[in-house]
Every structure is written in C-alpha cells, then in structure tokens.
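User: Show me a protein chain along with its predicted structure.
Assistant: Here is one chain, sequence first, then structure tokens.
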Amino acid sequence: MSKLNDLSPYEQFLRDTFHADDAGLQRLQAEAEQEGLPAISIGPEQGKFLQVLVQLTGARKVLEIGTLGGYSGAWMARALPADGKLISLELEEKHAAFTRRQWAALGLNGKTEVRVGPALDSLPGLADEAPFDLIFIDADKNNYPAYLEWALRYSRSGTIILGDNVSMGGRLADPHQQQNEWIQGMRRFAERMAADERLVSTVVPYADGIAMGVVK
C-alpha cells in the first residue's frame, strides 16, 4: 500500500535491518492493496520513527489527522501504554471500517478510535480529549495550515506536532507548481511551522519529508 518502495541498496539494508514490517503489518498492507485503498501510506521507516517518538516521549494521548488504512496508526498505537489512546480522523467510511478491522486483528481496539467525517468538522469536538501528547497530520495538504492551528490549540508544552509530505514529491519548491492548491497549502504550513514562536521545528528527511515541531 505504500508507494515508498524505490530504495537504494543502503535504504533497503536499513529497511530490512531496522524497519521491516512484521506479519501483522504485512497483512494490513496486503489487504489494503486487495481492497483498492490508495497506495499512499507512509513507509515502514516513518512508521518506526513515529513509534519511537511515542515511546520516547511517554505519550498517552495521540491524535492522527488522516487514517487511510490504519498503518501509521498501528505503529503509534503499539507504543502507547495500556491506558493510552489514539484518536484518528478519517474522511471515508470505507477506510475507517477497514482500519477498525485491522486494528482489531492487531489487538489494538482498546487503545484506538476512528472518527469519520471531514477533519475540520471533527476537530472542534475534541476539546475534552485535549491536550494531546503527539499529533500526526497526514491528510489533504491544502488544509494543513488549518490543521496546524487546531494542533496548536490542542497541545501542551512538550507536545510533538508532525506533518507528512513536506517535499510534495520534490514539487514544493518547483516554480512551475506554485499554482497547485496542495503545494500552496503545504508551503503555508511549512512557513508557519518554521516561524511560529510557540514551536521549535525542523524537517526530518524521511521519504517525502516530515515536518516536526515541539511546543515550547
């Protein structure tokens, strides 16, 4: 299901040694492909990175904006403690239903929840769940700036905010792509992440780039 499979020999070595999917995640990806879910999920390198961040920070409450087939959420939920909670927002009911089945098969039901609908409609209803310890944004790129504002609203000092696909396949700085709505949204998001005085931010160059900020 991930499109991130064009690897150099060194990248393949790292994937095989550090980041390989286990049987449960392999099944999730294979069944996602069989059911026709878009092949746009993160790769195992990013999944392991998210898992390490959850574990490193001792996160108990995680918000994910953009569920797809539940692959990234599975990596994060596995690192949560028994009383931890991942809330994932997904536009499509088909994707949400697939994800619920996969998370149940992985034994993650007790720590996960998918909420269906446009994320900008779902986000106002999360006030009672906040603050979150980690927030991962991987949805429609034109709305990333709005998602960032909600993420900041639902954060505390030390919260990690991440946004996937900053590179936009290398198109972010392409002068011929600047009229694209998703490119414009991602540029505004990246600029706000870098300039917002509430954040200490950088970009981790995994695959298509992950912007990461820590709330001061």
